[in-house]
Amino acid sequence: SEVSHIDGVYYSTFTAGASGALRLGWAASADGIRWVTTGSPILSEDETSPWDNRSVLAASWRVEDGVLTAWYNGTALVQTGVGVVTASWEDR
Hints:
Layout: E1 2-6, E2 9-18, E3 21-29, E4 36-37, E5 55-64, E6 67-75, E7 80-88
């Protein structure tokens, strides 16, 4: 996972799930010790994709001009790749 400290809050992405079916999660912490998660994945596999239809994991991210950009690794049965997604930082 990757942790960033923005406006007094720690944010992190993390990978969780069953073996071979990993998803990307999001967490926040005021002190870097106790974390609150979204409770559900923020990014899951794309069943129609040839390269990320099994798992998504290992996100690296940044916030610039109010936009969250995350790069992630996707896996399939025989392929892997790197994808990118964006979202409004206000929607976190």
